[in-house]
Amino acid sequence: MSLEKEIEQRSDSTCELCRSKENLSLYTLEDFPGEETDGSFMICSVCKEQLEDPEKADPNHWRCLNDAMWSSVPAVQVTAWQMLNNLKAEGWPQDLLDMMYMDDELKSYARRGLKNEEATPEAVHRDSNGAVIEAGDTVVLTKDLNVKGSSLTAKRGTAVRRVSLVHDNPEQIEGKVESQQIVILTKFVKKV
Hints:
Layout: H1 3-10, E1 24-28, E2 40-44, H2 45-52, H3 65-68, H4 74-86, H5 92-99, H6 104-112, E3 125-126, E4 132-133, E5 139-141, E6 145-146, E7 153-154, E8 159-160, E9 164-165, E10 172-177, E11 180-185, E12 189-191
Antiparallel strand pairs: 1-2, 3-4, 5-8, 5-12, 6-7, 9-10, 10-11
C-alpha cells in the first residue's frame, strides 16, 4: 500500500488539522526523525496554503487546533504546536499551548521548524529539587506560605493540582489553594 493511501485510510479521508473533506493532499514534514507515516498527514488546500504562507493565516480557521493538538500523529502535533506558536499574539493559542503535551524530542524538532524567527525559547520552570514543572502538573508546598492580600496561609504539604506556568517568569507558577488562585514561587514547591 502506498504512503498516501495508508495516510488517507488512517485519516478517514479528512484533513487531520481541520477535519475538512475537500481538496486533500499528503503533507510530509522535512527531515522528520521517525517513521515516514508519523511524519506525514492529510491536509486540505486551505490549511496547506496558510501553513506555507503565514501572512495568509486566518486565526479563526486555526481554532480547529483545539482538537487537532490531541492527535496521536506526531506530524499533526508538531504542526499544531508550530501554528499555535505563530499565532501566540492572538491570546487564545497560548491557552492551548499551556495544555499541550509533546515529548522533548518532538518539541525540539518542532522548535527547529518555527516560521517565527523571533520566537523566544520557553522559560523552564523548576521545583526546589530541580525537576522540570510543566503546565498541568501537581506540586506540593515545601513550606507554609502567607498569601499576599489575603488572610490565607497555604500550609506546607498542601497539594496544588493542575498548575499553570507564568510564561515570562520561570520562578513563578499559578495554582488553586483552598479555592483561591495564587502565584507560587517555584523554589517553595516540589513536583509530585
